[in-house]
Amino acid sequence: MKTSSSYTTIAYLFMAPALILMGIFTFWPVGFNTYLAFHDYALVDGTATWNNFAHFKYIAGEELFHSAIKNSLLFLLVVPVIQLAALVVAKLVNSKLPGMTFFRASYYIPVITAVSIAAVVWSNVYKYDGMLNMILSWVGQALHLLKAGEMVEIQWIGDPHIAIFSVMGFVFWKGIGYYMVLYLAGLQAIPAEVEEAAVLDGANAWQRFWKITVPMVKPTILLCTLLSTIAAIKAFQEVVVLTRGQSDTYTALFYVYAQAFQNYNFGRAAAAGLVITFFCMILAIIQFRFFGEKK
Amino acid sequence: MKLKKMLAVGAVVFGFAALQAHADTELEFWTMNLAPKFNGYFDQATTKFNAANPGLKAKWVDMNWDQIQPKLVASIAAGNPPALVNFNVPWVHEFAAQGNLVALDQYLGAAKGNYSTNSLKDVTAGGKVFAFPWYNSVSVIAYNKDIFAKAGVKAAPTDFDQFISVGKQITAKTGLPAYAPKVGNFVGWFAYAGLPILENGKAVFNSPKHVAFVQKFADLYKAGVVPKDLFKVEFEQEIALYNAGKIAMMTTAPQALKRTETDAKAIYDKTGVAPFPLGAGKLAQGSWMMDFVVPKGVKDPAAAAKLGLFLTGDEQQVLFSKATETTFPSTKKGNLDPYFQAGKNSKDVVEQARAVAAGSMDGARTLVITPGQLPDEAALTKKLQDELQSAIEGRKPVKAALDEVVAAWNEKLAK
Predict the structure, then answer these.
(1) Is the peptide bond prior to A29 cis by the omega test (within 30 degrees of 0)?
(2) pLDDT above 90 for B363
(3) Count of alpha carbons within 13 Å of A143, Cβ hemisphere only?
(4) How much is the mean pLDDT over chain A?
């Protein structure tokens, strides 16, 4: 006869391997980061001295950090767009037509493509004499909007006014497949009878999408929105490989990276990281309010 | 009895040998990212050094560049640092400022005169030399003879003003961008032009001379002499542009020509080479020197210095350059070696480039702003680069942009 306490012990034992790894690679770094944020950290001898919030005071007055936060928040624009698009695409590839596996795989390929390789391709798309401008030029010529021989020469990732949106385009392309797969799993959990009943009742596709699909994948929407919000705030890799922070695309995590590994000021980097975490948590709370289960 | 005697003799011999082995001072020297490609060179160097210096035993250890600093810090803390460590120039200044390096003046002696003046300047902090200058490189101009002919350009530019005017001529005649000089670290261009950056702890790069200099780049940009995405062009992109025949000149390290040789033979065959003209600052472009430092806490700094002098002497530096084929000695005589000079009359472009670059090595200076002079260097550099990009790409007047950066720099410098 097993007692409940031995059940608990066994449960913890099952969790132990994962918990130990998380402890070493997640909880301890988060804790140490928080500790560093309030200290001056000397790299050479590893000593940390309390500095009376000096790092927070510094970044509070730092224009570059403000613009970095602004850009990171601007990245949130990707979230609703990518969620809606991923849900629609998931709905499309969820139909039982021949060749659907091909489309599902195609949308997923960007997710498994290395970001550095994808960026090389996309910088050739976005170049002033790159693919995107070439296509626009063809269209412009065909519609007689451009003079013969005239080319569109927009610097998609060089012009500070549009560069960040171009990077978002890249993020969108890279991420849509990931959320599509999550939504696909959510959609397949919806019983077919519900949809059939709605059809019999005369609901059209639009109504079925908003009245059945969306409410029934709500938990998935919460998960995906949360994940993509965090990913947007954390935008860094995409920026490094596409623009190296030039043209007003410098994001908050880029600031953290530069402070830590260019200035070797780990304390200030930790403080900036903590501020970003704070923004992430506020957004997460808001989302739970919106999409979470009402108790 | 016999056995006992034999054992006793054996023990004495063994003890003596052990003592002898123990007496050898081991000199470990660390390099970054040179194994296994240059094992042959280092085997030769250590064998030669050990033979010439009984009692000393040099031992080569190679590691990835990002391991060097943490491992060194740990070994200094443990009281057991290696004899020599391969550093780049900024690290020399960082570690010297922390007091973690041995000053080398007393060990250099007369050998000090062997190194090029600029290479010594690069590793001097507070009037003391903190490293043995080692290998280095500089930029050359590689040009497409066909495009030059089409534009009616007879010879490569020999000074910076010609560099500008030749560029404009090429673009006016051919419609192609002439070149894509790297602007990723613009303070280097100020130093190249002999213009000051900091004076008495204040940023001073908004004088009329600075404005006029940056204006030259803005004019080049406007006229299409440089590609539209100039600020995105780095080493790889410049080679790609040149190899595709999209620019007339490549202003880069000589090893880039090896890539042209393998990737674009047709362009390579019509390539000429010329030195990159010295600017008003009498400096060559594109230098990034490597050196050896002696960490603090080394038990026998004199022996460590002996090894340092050996590895960075004329003979070993030339041998190392022969092994790499693309780097250059930091000693005066080293660059006069027939190996470099033979290329002058060679038909092979890589060999020509070698001779041309060796001729520019005296002007090679890596350092522009000593590390530690700027508070929050990452943010200040970013501000400078962003504003310069706006100015050069014509979104902002040059004067206004430089004024803004100088104000931002001085605000932080005053703190």
Answers:
(1) no
(2) no
(3) 7
(4) 86
Q: Do A257 and A241 form a contact (C-beta atoms < 8 A)?
A: no
Residue A203 domain flag: yes
Could you list the beta-strand ranges (E) of B318-407.
Answer: none
- Report how far residue B252's alpha carbon sits from residue B180's, in angstroms, rounded to the nearest whole number: 10
Find the Cα–Cα–Cα–Cα dihedral A230, A233, A236, A239, rounded to 10°: 120
Q: How far is CA B298 from CA A27, B75, B97, B158, in A?
A: 39, 10, 18, 47
In a domain, A35, yes or no: no
Inform me whether the pLDDT recorded for B382 exceeds 70. Answer: yes
Q: What is the pLDDT of residue B2?
A: 61
What pLDDT, in 10s, does the model give residues A99-138?
Answer: 888 888 888 999 998 888 898 899 889 988 888 888 988 8
d(CA B76, CA B65) in angstroms, rounded, equals 17
Report helix, strand or coil for B333: coil
Tokens of B338: 């027939």
Closest CA to A178 of A213, A223, A127: A223
pLDDT of the residue at B12: 60
Bond into A80 cis (ω within 30): no
**Residue A5 located in a structural domain:** no
Which residues of B, range 363-392, sit inside 8 Å of A by Cβ? Answer: 376-379, 382-383, 385-386, 389-390
A83-92: per-residue pLDDT in tens? 999 998 988 8
**Distance from chain centroid for Cα B381:** 20
Q: Under 8 Å CB-to-CB from B208, ≥6 apart: which residues?
A: none
> How confident is the model at residue B397, as a pLDDT?
93
Establish if A11 belongs to a structural domain.
no
The mean per-residue pLDDT over the stretch B163-168 comes to 91
Q: How many domains does chain A have?
A: 1
Overall residue count recorded for chain A in this entry: 295
**Is A265 within 8 Å of chain B by CB?**
yes
Expressed as residue numbers, the domain containing A116 is 55-291
pLDDT at B46 over 90: yes
Contact B382 A258 (CB under 8 A): yes
**What whole-number distance in Å separates Cα of residue B125 and Cα of residue B117?**
14
Average pLDDT over residues B211-216: 93
Q: Which of residues 185-244 of A touch B (CB under 8 A)?
A: none
Place of tokens 């590689």: B142
C-alpha–C-alpha distance, residues B147 and B250, integer Å: 12
* CATH code for the domain in which residue A284 is found: 1.10.3720.10
Q: What is the mean pLDDT of residues A253-279?
A: 87
- pTM surpassing 0.80? no
Q: What pLDDT is stored for residue B253 in this prediction?
A: 81
By C-alpha distance, the chain A residue nearest B371 is: A263
- Collect all residues of chain A within an 8 Å Cβ-Cβ radius of residue B377: 262-263
Residue B35, chain A, CB below 8 Å: the answer is no
Residues of chain A with Cβ-Cβ distance to B383 below 8 Å are 64
